[in-house]
Specification:
alpha/beta; Rossmann fold; N-(1-d-carboxylethyl)-l-norvaline Dehydrogenase, domain 2; globular
Length: about 290
């Protein structure tokens, strides 16, 4: 399908990079973002900026939604200028947000009622990997939805996992990934905070841990934000308030205990309540008393 028309809704840290990867792969990219200037800037380098999701839907048989949550996805699809009513039968909606798996499964049924195909396709990897086309996609959907996407998924991702033929399976795996991501960030912040409290040089601590068994991808990726004192959000504290909330909701439905997730959720909640909700998620370190941050 290289050269075909593909629409991308949401040009944030992940969506912008994914759209750029598709453009490099030769797709005719149409974009929409609630910030019209962002869409126009993207299109200036190649592509078409659309004024609404419905305009995007009329132009493109494949739509990729990279918004924050289920509420925003509902608005993209069913709001006043939503794309659902404008999508021709046989087109496909690729949903990349982290959402309740039950909600995602229900969305597949809703869209099928009007002949629209659906892929449950949450993503992971961060902004840098999105920009280079190296994200991971955790997907589930019908064979027809995959066929309709052609090479679109491979143009955006280094790994495209097919986890089932019905929506919901992809979102379940993403929610479990977020359990680990959130717990690892919280643990990294706790370790760095203890080091600061004990007077350890933070740069030396970072160097040692990243070359030792206690390292994690999140420690290595997030603690430089702390060392630089730069909490510009790439992924915000409130994202993990939401995502670990989804983890706990999924476990609660089957009465499954998650003690570490519960503690991490409270840490992110505490940081958000203290006014750091829109800061980078590494700002969870600010909940610890008696430490002097770099």
């Amino acid at each position: 399908m290289t050269g075909g028309k593909v629409g991308v809704i949401g040009l944030g840290a992940m969506g912008g990079g994914m759209a750029a990867s598709l453009r490099r792969a030769g797709f005719d990219i149409h974009v929409f973002d609630v910030r019209a200037d962002v869409a126009q800037r993207f299109a200036a380098d190649g592509g078409t900026a659309c004024a609404s999701p419905s305009e995007l839907a009329r132009a493109c048989p494949v739509l990729i939604s990279v918004v924050v949550n289920a509420t925003q996805t509902e608005d993209v699809l069913f709001g006043n200028t939503g794309c659902a009513a404008a999508m021709p039968a046989g087109s496909v909606f690729v949903m990349c947000s982290t959402v309740d798996p039950t909600w995602s499964a229900a969305l597949e049924t809703r869209l099928a009622g009007q002949g629209v195909l659906y892929l449950d396709a949450p993503i992971s990897g961060g902004a840098a990997r999105a920009a280079s086309g190296d994200i991971t996609m955790m997907t589930a959907g019908s064979a027809a939805a995959y066929e309709r996407c052609g090479g679109v998924l491979d143009a955006m991702a280094a790994k495209v996992y097919r986890l089932g033929d019905r929506a919901g399976a992809g979102s379940k795996v993403k929610v479990i990934n977020q359990l680990l991501a959130g717990v690892h960030i919280a643990a990294a912040a706790e370790a760095m905070a203890l080091g600061l409290r004990e007077g350890v040089d933070p740069a030396a601590l970072y160097e040692v841990i990243t070359h030792s068994a206690g390292n994690s991808w999140m420690f290595e990726n997030r603690m430089p934000h702390v060392l630089a004192g730069d909490y510009t959000p790439l992924s915000a504290v409130d994202i993990f308030v939401k995502d670990i909330g989804l983890v706990l909701d999924m476990a609660r439905a089957s009465k499954f205990p998650l003690p570490l997730s519960s503690t991490a959720h409270q840490m992110f909640m505490q940081a958000s309540t203290a006014g750091h909700g829109r800061d980078d998620d590494s700002a969870v370190i600010k909940i610890f008393p008696g430490i002097k941050l770099p």
